[in-house]
């Protein structure tokens, strides 16, 4: 079972006020930016739909959501809801989610970092995809990863 280490790295002003909005806008038009999707998940307290931009990782035979910033609200909501919807353009596809254990994460984190370390590397303590196994294992507990099915 994954032990939750409460860590959250807030996005900077540019990401919060410009970057995320731009990615959400492009994705809502149906333009995926290197795997971007809009994650729709019900709030664990309010029950209202919440949305966030995410990078959908397709690796081997699976699809995954990695939380580069750690224990975000969308992570907590997805844990509680057990699933949500991924949007691209006007299409929203429901999915079920399973959180991976820390032992299951290293290869997925390497694949994620290979694709997105330029934009998210800061959140991984500057660990790169070709880092030693010990470094990947060290950061694994700080980054929730969900396997998704149905999307």
Describe this protein's structure.
The chain has four helices and six strands; from the N terminus they run αβββαββααβ. The chain has 151 residues and is of the alpha+beta class. The chain has one domain: Pnp Oxidase, Chain A. It has a six-stranded antiparallel beta barrel with strand order 1-2-3-6-5-4.
What share of the residues lie within helices?
Answer: 25-40%
- Tertiary shape: globular
Low-pLDDT segments, ≥5 res: none
What number of structural domains do the residues give? 1
Count of helices?
4
What CATH architecture do you see? Roll
The CATH class is: Mainly Beta
CATH topology: Pnp Oxidase, Chain A
Structural Rg: 15 Å
Q: Distance N terminus to C terminus? A: 24 Å
Task: Assign the structural class, choosing from mainly alpha, mainly beta, alpha/beta, alpha+beta, or little secondary structure.
Answer: alpha+beta
β-sheet strand percentage: 25-35%
Number of strands: 6
How do the strands and helices of this protein lay out in sequence?
Elements: H1 13-28, E1 36-42, E2 49-59, E3 62-66, H2 73-81, E4 83-88, E5 91-99, H3 106-120, H4 133-139, E6 145-149
Antiparallel strand pairs: 1-2, 1-4, 2-3, 3-6, 4-5, 5-6
Name its key features.
single chain, 151 residues, alpha+beta, Pnp Oxidase, Chain A, six-stranded antiparallel β-barrel
In short:
Helices cover 31% and strands 28% of the residues. The protein has 4 helices and 6 strands.
